[in-house]
Design brief:
- Helix 3 runs parallel beside helix 5.
- By secondary structure, the chain is mainly α.
- The chain contains seven helices and two strands.
- The chain is 56% helix and 5% strand.
- A two-stranded antiparallel ribbon has the order 1-2.
- The chain has one domain: Four Helix Bundle (Hemerythrin (Met), subunit A) (Up-down Bundle).
- InterPro entries: DinB-like (IPR024775), DinB/YfiT-like (IPR034660).
Length: 176
């Protein structure tokens, strides 16, 4: 298991991502492992119909949030791969609001989404665990901003932590 993931400096990522980085106070790989258990606990007892719940008009459903988390993890892991392998080609951004409506999330079962979650998370962890200290320190450009592998390792669980907090604060209190 890699232990090369120390807290990134603020110069290793765009200021926007500080929101996510500050949410991770532990080894980011351990955070990714913990979040798998945490997500299942949060979803326990929810019906498929509740998965389509939106706390306000125009907001994503619970299932759309989950699939958004998966899409984002895949994109960030792709960035990790490219930058970690020394590819200095600037990587494009993505528009999350274009992805969600065509994701088909609400038509999927929780079991199906969680099976995909397990696959994506295992691949992300495997990739991150393969990196050396030199790999982790590599920097590239994504969405027109500098970013390091180390920063992405914190941004990944930080993004999920943000969405888990939204589930806790805005979705689940209304459903329980």
């Amino acid at each position: 298991m890699s232990t090369h993931f120390t807290l990134p400096s603020s110069t290793e990522y765009a200021p926007y991502y500080h929101t996510y980085v500050k949410l991770i106070a532990e080894d980011p790989l351990e955070a990714l492992r913990r979040q798998s258990r945490e997500l299942r606990q949060l979803l326990a007892g929810l019906t498929e119909e509740q998965g389509a719940f939106r706390y306000a008009p125009g907001k994503w459903s619970i299932k759309e949030n989950l699939v958004h988390m998966l899409d984002t993890e895949r994109i960030f892991a792709y960035r990790v791969l490219r930058i970690g392998r020394g590819d200095t080609t600037p990587l494009p951004g993505f528009e999350q609001d274009d992805y969600v409506p065509v994701s088909g999330a609400d038509a999927r079962s929780f079991a199906n989404i969680l099976a995909e979650y397990d696959t994506v998370r295992a691949a992300t962890l495997s990739l991150l665990e393969s990196f050396t200290a030199e790999d982790v320190s590599r920097q590239g450009t994504a969405s027109g901003q500098p970013v390091s592998v180390r920063a992405l390792a914190y941004i990944l669980p930080g993004h999920e932590a943000h969405h888990l907090n939204l589930l806790r604060e805005r979705y689940l209190p209304v459903l329980h």
